[in-house]
Structure formats: structure tokens, C-alpha cells
Amino acid sequence: MKTQPNNRAVILGQFIIENKATVRCAAKKFGISKSTVHKDVSERLPKINPALSAQVKEILEINKQERHIRGGMATKMKYRRIAETTEKKGSPA
Fold first, then answer.
1. What single-letter DSSP state applies at residue 31?
2. Cα(76)–Cα(52) distance, rounded to whole angstroms?
3. Does residue 37 contact residue 27 with C-beta atoms inside 8 Å?
């Protein structure tokens, strides 16, 4: 995403609000690093558009509170896939 940093910050903020996206999700979508996304929405955006920045901050705070749940679910799914793969290999065909 080759745009001016200020424009990029607004675009990222809008994306995060519209999709209730995480920093990681926004970074992946726009092909930039998590650090760049975080810097844009936490440092640049408040100077450009304080109202948009406040909305983004709310969503990121919710994401921060829920991240331990997401991590637990990801681990659960990982071990479920491993178990399914092991069952398929071990069962007679």
C-alpha cells in the first residue's frame, strides 16, 4: 500500500472500524507490518482525525481484552486438527 502516511492512517482507521479488525488483520489486508499499522492508528490518526481515532481506539481496546480468548481458541483448533490427522493415519483404509 504505497500512499502518503496520513492518507494510509485514515484508510486503516476506516477499515478497522468497518470490519472490527485487529492490527494483525489490517496489516495482512494492506500488506504492511503490524508496527506500521499501530503507528499509523495510534500516533498519526489522532492528529489528523481525532473522532475516527477515538472509534479505532475503542475497537482495538476490545480486541486487546479478547486476545487471550482468541489465542485459546486457536490452540484448541490446532490440537483438534492434529488429532484428526492422527486418526486418519491410524485407521485402516
1. T
2. 35
3. yes
Question: Using CA atoms, how far apart are residues 56 and 47, in angstroms rounded to an integer?
Answer: 13
Q: Grid cell 504492511 — which residue?
A: 32
Whether residue 38 contacts residue 2, with contact meaning beta carbons closer than 8 Å, is answered with: no
C-alpha cell at 80: 483438534
Q: What is the DSSP letter of 20?
A: T
Count of Cβ atoms closer than 10 Å to residue 32 Cβ: 16
Is 9 exposed, middle or buried (CB count within 10 Å of its CB: 0-12, 13-18, 19+)? buried
Per-residue tens of pLDDT for the chain, all 93 residues = 656 889 999 999 999 999 999 999 999 999 999 999 999 999 999 999 999 999 999 999 998 888 788 788 889 999 999 998 888 876 555
